[in-house]
TrEMBL record:
Residues given in the record as (R)-pantoate binding sites: Q69, Q161
Leading EC class: ligase
InterPro entries: Cyt_trans-like, Pantoate_ligase, Pantoate_ligase_C, Rossmann-like_a/b/a_fold
Protein name as annotated: Pantothenate synthetase
A Pfam family it matches: Pantoate_ligase
Annotated GO CC locations: cytosol
NCBIfam families linked: cyt_tran_rel, panC
Classification of source organism: Bacteria, Pseudomonadati, Pseudomonadota, Alphaproteobacteria, Rhodobacterales
Main location: cytoplasm
GO BP terms, alphabetized: pantothenate biosynthetic process
Transmembrane annotation, as ranges: none
């Protein structure tokens, strides 16, 4: 560990300042880990920062609410922003820098490039959030190059994102290892997510039903049932818990995301569902 573990990490706001730091670290032969986030940090993000801290001599957490990956302007406007609190939460982990660029550091005037990963983005969140993965892959490519990190840490909660980013780094020969980390959950099973802050008290009580339904369905799939048979009861249970819509509830191959009826190879169950105006996503291994 290189930082005093209770001193808040410096907040770096410009690319030249970031480069000055990383150049020094590189010259000293240090390894750099990056944890890309959009802020409103919770234990899920902190678990990524801890994993980076354990593996790398320098750790950068990035906080940037990337407008290009929001397909819905209301979602962007409502996205929680808690920078001071985020810095306080990171202090005990002892990260070395928090990179909080403004829009101009990431998308300078005239910016005209999009990184688009085909093949893994036509389904699941890609099918329901047009442009989302192009915007995400573009900013992540920039963050990889701006930080010149050796390793990048992503949560399995956003499993499709993890697959897309891994493919993108490989396809573009970006010399970075993408590390997937387990989903951190609340005690009642709800996957931690910044958007959970937007749930009303009443909706928060019903939110864990998504994970309950998925866990039951995964157990039934392992016992030999198929998705078509199980889906109607799962949807009915979500409906009676107050979910107003289900974007998808699908079994897919863990590698490549092909649609499956049964877990005849390593597979994951994926869901996205709406509760009181908030879109919750989750996925679990089957
Ligand atoms: N519960 C979690 N467990 C582990 N990693 C997580 C969890 N939630 C988010 N992450 C990871 O944190 C990184 C940053 O995600 P992001 O800032 O979008 O947070 P988020 O909580 O997923 O917010 P939202 O889904 O509401 O946008 C991503 O790699 C994401 O997968
Ligand atoms: C990876 C990411 C920080 C890119 O904006 C975002 O998609 C997220 O927070 O998961
Ligand atoms: N957590 C993935 C980023 C997003 O929802 O836009």
């Amino acid at each position: 560990m290189t930082a005093d573990s209770h001193r808040p990490a410096p907040i770096v706001r410009t690319l030249p300042d970031l480069r000055a730091l990383t150049r020094r670290w590189r010259d000293a032969g240090e390894t750099i880990g990056v944890v890309p986030t959009m802020g409103a940090l919770h234990q899920g993000h902190l678990s990524l920062a801890r994993a980076a801290r354990a593996d790398c001599s320098r750790v950068i957490v990035t906080i940037f609410v990337n407008p290009r990956q929001f397909n819905n302007p209301e979602d962007l406007a409502a996205y929680p922003r808690t920078e001071d609190e985020d810095a306080r939460k990171l202090a005990p982990i002892g990260v070395d820098a928090i990179y909080v660029p403004d829009g101009a550091q990431v998308y300078p005037e005239g910016f005209a490039t999009t990184v688009s990963v085909t093949g893994l983005t036509g389904m699941l969140c890609g099918a329901h959030r047009p442009g989302h993965f192009d915007g995400m892959a573009t900013v992540v490519a920039k963050l990889f190059l701006q930080t010149s990190a050796d390793r990048a840490y992503f949560g399995q909660k956003d499993y499709q994102q993890l697959q897309v980013v891994t493919r993108m780094a490989r396809d573009l020969d970006i010399p970075i290892e993408v590390v997937g980390c387990p989903t951190i959950r609340e005690e009642d099973g709800l996957a931690m997510s910044s958007r959970n802050l937007l749930l009303s008290d009443r909706a928060r009580i019903h939110a864990p039903v998504l994970h309950e339904v998925m866990a039951q369905m995964a157990a039934d799939l392992r016992a030999g049932a198929d998705v078509t048979t199980l889906r109607p009861a799962a949807l009915a249970r979500l409906d009676s818990a107050g979910f107003t819509g289900v974007d998808y509830l699908e079994l897919r191959a863990a590698e490549g995301l092909a649609l499956l009826e049964r877990p005849d190879r390593p597979a994951r169950l994926f869901a996205a569902a709406w509760l009181a105006g908030v879109r919750l996503i989750d996925n679990i291994a089957v």
